[in-house]
Amino acid sequence: MVRFALKGLLGRKLRTVLSALAIVLGVAMVAGTFMLTDSIDKAFTSIFTDVRQGSNAVISGRTAFDVSQGAGSTAPTLSEALLPKARSLADVAAAEGSVDGEAQLIGRNGKAIVFGGAPNLGFSIANGDSRFNPLTLVEGSWPTSGQVVVDKSTADKKGLKLGQPIGVQAEGAAERLRISGFVNFGSVATIGGATLAGFDLPTAQRLFRKPGRLDEIAVAAKPGVSDAQLVRQLRANVPATAQVKTATQQAHDDAAETNAFITFLRGFLLAFGGIALFVGAFVIANSLSITIAQRTREFATARTIGASRRQILTSILLESLVVGVLASLVGLAAGVGLAKALFWLFDLVGFTLPNSGLILTSSAVAIALAAGILVTLVASLRPAFRATRVPPIAAVREGASLPPSRYAFLRVPASILLTLLGFGALTWGLFGPGLSTTALLIWMGVGALMIFLGVALLAERLVRPLATWLGWPSARFGGTAGRLARGNSQRNTQRTASTASALMIGLALVTLVSVLAAGIVSTFRGAVDDLWKSADYAVTAQNNFSPIPVSIAEATAKAPGVDAVGSVRAGQARAFGSVFNATAVDPPTSRIFSIDWKEGSDAVLARLGANGAFVTEGFAKDHHLSVGSTMKETFASGRTAPFRVMGIFKPPTGGSPFGPVTISAQTWDRYNSQPRNLYSFVIMKGGTTDANQAALDRQLRAFPNAKVQTRQQFVDNQISGLSSVLNVLYVLLALSVVVSLFGIVNTLVLTVFERTREIGMLRAVGMTRRQVRRMIRHESVITASIGGVLGIALGIALGALLVARVDFIDFTLPVGQLVVFAIAAIVVGLLAAIFPARRAARLNVLEALQYE
Predict the structure, then answer these.
(1) 235: phi then psi, degrees, rounded to nearest 5
(2) Do the bridges between strand 630-635 and strand 562-575 make them parallel or antiparallel, or are there none, so unpaired?
(3) Are the C-beta atoms of residues 465 and 782 closer than 8 Å to each other?
(4) Lowest CB count within 10 Å: 254, 289, 673, 685, which one?
């Protein structure tokens, strides 16, 4: 039976290749994901390890909780006097202090040099030849007073030259420094889109407004002194506001947030690989079902000459195994190209990632191959068992077909039950009380899988009415070819349903994403309209979301025509045992915002004082707070202060600029050494005018990382980040649509084989080649349209269910995008028909009439 199976494959090369393509794409996505994330993981590991090279221990400011980078809160600084004290200790061979922060390099056009959302890193270089310095000098010299070194990558991209002056903005207005050298970082090939700016220590302390302070002290041990011994000695000699860790532990802690991101990214991308494989399983199952039906007489002959049902089953599974292995190996190779394409895609949307070269681990190979092979085998089980039911008598019958399963009558009730159970599981995952994140994702994944399988099985009953309706244009305007195409799509409803279901899955997910995105955008616009009372302009970071120095708001207030500037500070704090994103406001915000108060009024924003706070309705409910209640809030510095609740508000559906707890900016600044604003809002005399815009732009020319926006520009820019994420999602989901396209191609090719004599007969009675091509195209479009209608309808239903669970999104139907998706389904049908239509038109009439 091994030779029998292999001959079956070799005799149907085209069918085998078309079936295998679906698995190739799915495995390529899985393998490419592992290569991408393993490469990023290695790059980040190298970065965090190189930073700590030469160190045995690190002294830094002690925080009350883990502070997320870019959230607005920072660790407290250290006194510079601690450095000579550390150097004097018996176990210390060398010690070096440093400061760091965000430093924007300013290009010739006067704008900040940024590459997507990558960080702009600034740091001190106390001694270029130090054992603690992870940088390599490529050209020039290390910086002295009034100088800066820049990473070679940024210099090459922007055409920077040694000795040229360049603007640098840190905590204050931009300063002009001279480029003394170009550097590379550690051992990684690229650090992504990050820019590096290095200064001597006094310059860095001035730029970052940390005079006489240090962020870290790197310490090296004398020979024979263990890391643990060094840490013990240091801990005994540092103040309570400082902490000491081994260099290894510090590198591990630095990487913790990045590792969490990589884990998320890997799971996120693998989900799309799983979707592609799931769609591929439909293609494999459908293709095998068709080929097995076409090989009925072949299997019957084998049974007649002695082959058992078990041998027939073995031969089919062996064919599937060979297809799965070969397709998975090709997919593994294609994964290299896909990983490079993913790097390019993320770079294109402004999410440039560090790269240490593509890595293919043995575990990634094993997982990718196992996924492809198992999916192929599982998809082939039902067609394989159907093949075993071929009776020997079918060998002498022309046009014999497979007998129906004895459980065929249960197909409809079982599919309905499966769909209902799927919606039940999904609903429980979304609304079930007390579910962990893992449990929620499992319930949602299982529910979605059951829904897709149930609808796919139920689709067989929907094919005839849908084909009648969707095929009306073909029958009306396509002539005889169009009418035949509609009849062909209704002839084998199970086959048409399976083919359409592969496309249905991809379009359902695309529609789901589109519904969620439309809900987020519309509710965000509504939230801005509800909250934004009287401000004329908003000032944010160039990337729209990073906190910016308070000096920018201070400078804005000095612009001619400014009536008031109200800012929202952002950072992290802890209360009731949980860390959250906290905010702070200054008095002018009472004129800017119109808040939906449950208790209190907009005047609360101006009367918070030294110990006042206002909280969200949900926070108050969770912690049994009311106006007059007292709560304690702990800041990153470790200091704790009591606050009295002065107001409780209900955030608008689309989100709010305020965190669960908001205090006064004056109090926030007392407990946070480097406060930052998330937004600043400006009220101008005369409102929004070209003159006022120009005045603000001139005033902020020294702060290139800030930008002034009108209300409409602010909304559009905030939404632009969502648009980038959506573009990535659409590209990744397009992979499943491509897989389904191959499924339609495969089905049409196989049906052309099946209907060879029929097509020959049609040609013999006068049908032209052009009419044959038109018939196949119409059939393809009808099948794709069925998948499109089912997918869009299911995507809307799933989107409505998810929106009902998320409090900050209202249901919005993106009509324009849905029309685009419907047109896209028709285009997929047209593309899928190109090869099968040409193949059908080229059939020799005489040979077709004799075909069996």
Answers:
(1) -60, -30
(2) antiparallel
(3) no
(4) 685
Please tell me what DSSP assigns to residue 144. -
Q: How many CB atoms lie within 10 A of CB 224?
A: 7
Three-class SS state of 674: coil
8-state DSSP, 605: G
**Cα 101 to Cα 197: distance, rounded to the nearest angstrom:** 10
Which amino acid type is present at position 636? A
* 702-709: average pLDDT: 88
> What is the C-alpha to C-alpha distance for residues 113 and 105, in angstroms, rounded to an integer?
6
> Closest Cα partner for 46 from 221, 190, 230, 198?
190
| Confidence at residue 806, expressed as pLDDT on a 0 to 100 scale | 78
CA distances for 819 relative to 316, 469, 781, 822, angstroms: 42, 17, 16, 5
Chain Cα centroid distance, residue 182: 33
Please, is 185 exposed, middle or buried when counting C-beta atoms within 10 Å of its C-beta (0-12, 13-18, 19+)? buried
**What radius of gyration do the chain's Cα atoms show?**
33
For the segment 648-658, the average pLDDT, to the nearest whole number, is: 87
Between 707 and 274, residue with greater pLDDT: 707
Answer yes or no: is pLDDT of 400 > 50: no
> For 213-272, what is each residue's pLDDT tens digit?
999 999 999 999 999 999 999 999 999 889 999 988 888 887 777 777 777 778 877 887
Pairing state between β 195-199 and 120-124: parallel
For residue range 450-459, what is the model confidence (pLDDT) as tens digits?
898 888 888 8
3-state class of 586 per DSSP? coil
DSSP E strands in 186-241: the ranges are 195-199, 213-214, 216-221
d(CA 130, CA 138): 16
Task: Tell me the C-alpha distance between 73 and 311, whole Å.
Answer: 68
Chain segment 514-532, per-residue pLDDT in tens: 898 888 888 888 888 888 8
Tell me how far apart the alpha carbons of residues 530 and 593 are, in angstroms, rounded to a whole number.
9
Q: Cα separation of 616 and 659, whole Å?
A: 8
CA–CA separation, 690 and 42 (whole Å): 50
Does residue 42 surpass a pLDDT of 90? no
Closest CA to 574 of 639, 618, 665, 647: 639
Locate 817 and state its tokens. Answer: 């995008």
**Residue 123: both structure tokens together:** 């740091």
| 750: nearest Cα among 17, 27, 22, 26 | 17
Backbone angles phi, psi at 384, to 5 degrees: -65, -45
The alpha-helical segments, DSSP class H, found in 532-609 are 550-556, 589-592
| 822 CB-side CA count, 13 A | 11
Q: Which two tokens stand for residue 453?
A: 């399988």
Close Cβ partners of 248 (under 8 Å, ≥ 6 residues apart) = 52, 227
* Residue 293, token pair as written in the block: 């039906």
Contact 86, 237 (CB under 8 A): yes
- pLDDT, greater one: 743 or 709: 709
Residue 548 parent element (H or E): strand 548-549
**The two structure tokens encoding residue 234:** 């240091």
| Residue 651, number of CB atoms within 10 A of its CB | 21
For 836, other C-beta atoms within 10 Å of its C-beta total: 25
Residue 179: predicted pLDDT = 94
Chain-wide mean pLDDT for the chain?
A: 84
According to DSSP, the residues that pair with 708 across neighbouring strands are: 539
Distance, in Å, from the CA atom of 10 to the CA atom of 7, rounded to the nearest integer, reads: 5
**Short-list 422, 496, 429, 504, CA closest to 733:** 504
pLDDT at 804 over 60: yes
